UniProtKB/TrEMBL annotation:
Single GO MF annotation: 3-hydroxyisobutyryl-CoA hydrolase activity
InterPro entries: ClpP/crotonase-like_dom_sf, ECH_dom, HIBYL-CoA-H
Domain Enoyl-CoA hydratase/isomerase: 20-352
Record's keyword annotation contains Protein transport: no
Coiled coil ranges: none
Name of the molecule in the record: Enoyl-CoA hydratase/carnithine racemase
Amino acid sequence: MTTQPTEQNAEVQSEVRGGVGLITLNRPRALNALSLGMVRALMGVLLAWQHDARVQAVAIRGNGKDGPFGVFCAGGDIRFLHEAGSKGDPKIEDFFTEEYVLNHFTHNYPKPYIAFMDGIVMGGGMGISQGGSLRIVTERTKMAMPETGIGLFPDVGGGYFLSRCPGHVGEWLALTGETIGAGDAIAFGLADGCLPAAQQAEVWEAIATQGFADGAAIEAIIKAKFVAASADLASLRAQIDHYFSLPTVRDIVQALEAADSDWARATAATLRRRSPLMLHVVLEQIRRARHLGLADDLRMERDIVRHCFFLRPGQSETVEGIRALAIDKDQQPRWNPPRIEDVTPEMWQPFFESPWPTWAHPLRMLS
């Protein structure tokens, strides 16, 4: 039984079967990148199901080029962000406000929320999965928060969930945008278990057809299929904690460059390619978020994103970063300032000043 009719090409498909609300992101040519319409559709479905007695649990997946699974969600629609950010289109304000409300809702959903995080899971894809009660990865999972590469920061609650990774893994993932696989995602607290990719369709069908006493029973049948996954990068924890606990971005990069290690030098080279300004913003974001609840973190991130697009006229690192990566594709972003050593506190500290009084904040209702 469907809760709402969906066209064959709808970007968010939803139905209720066997006590489970099933959601499929269906924008495969864009790697299921979230548009404002998709954010609204997801929120609408989840709101409708939260008090629907037929729905014991919700499961979400992505469609890949060959059908279900293969890609979860590559993030937000960065082409829209570039166009809207270049023109000062107010829809960009709606996008971030509504996306962050959706992120908060998934973390606080009153029923089990099960995310099948197969394939690419980045940016906004992390935002709609990290709040899940069961976060499933596969051997194909490629997980990252790569925003510093486009002059942005790991938003969608990234400050909250990255800062809660063990040690200083959060700073490392946030600053570098490193991609990790299933085993490391589990080791770092960003996933709950690994399901072989080939078994996903069978498990999806089983939870939709078998009938269960409650949501916990639905989760239990999935957990019974989990397999071990190797954590390839977990062995780097000591190095990660050593370098990424240093006080400043400059300290981190200079220490990495001075190290006698291929990993350290490669990591330093990665950081040198990121937006110098946003690296400073991100380091502060993660460290502040470590002491914030989710709602306060999202309010902070909403403040930062306003600064990214609107409060540095003609100097948006984000618009420039997206241009270089996805529009002109020259891979030569003109960061301002161009070097990590040129960034002063007076440049990054204003990102943490809210443009709104508390009573007028667009996320004031989150708790």
